Amino acid sequence: MADQSIPEARTPEAPSREPLSAKGRSREGVSRRALLGTAGATGLVLGAAGAAVGYAAAPAGATPLTSVGSGRAMFHGKHQPGITEGLQARGHLVAFDLAAGAGRKEAAALLRRWSATAERLMAGEAAPHDDTDVARDAGPSSLTVTFGFGYGFFGRTGLDKQRPASLDPLPDFSSDHLDKARSDGDLWVQIGADDALVAFHALRAIQRDAGGAARVRWQMNGFNRTPGATAHPMTARNLMGQLDGTRNPKPTESDFDRRIFVPASGSNDPAWMANGSYAVVRRIRMLLDDWEKLSLAAQEQVIGRRKSDGAPLSGGTETTAMDLEKTNAQGDYVVPINAHARITRPDQNGGAALLRRPFSYHDGIDADGTPDAGLLFVCWQADPLRGFVPVQRKLDRGDALSQYIRHEASGLFAVPGGAAAGEYVGQRLLEG
Question: What is the pTM of this model?
Answer without folding.
Answer: 0.86
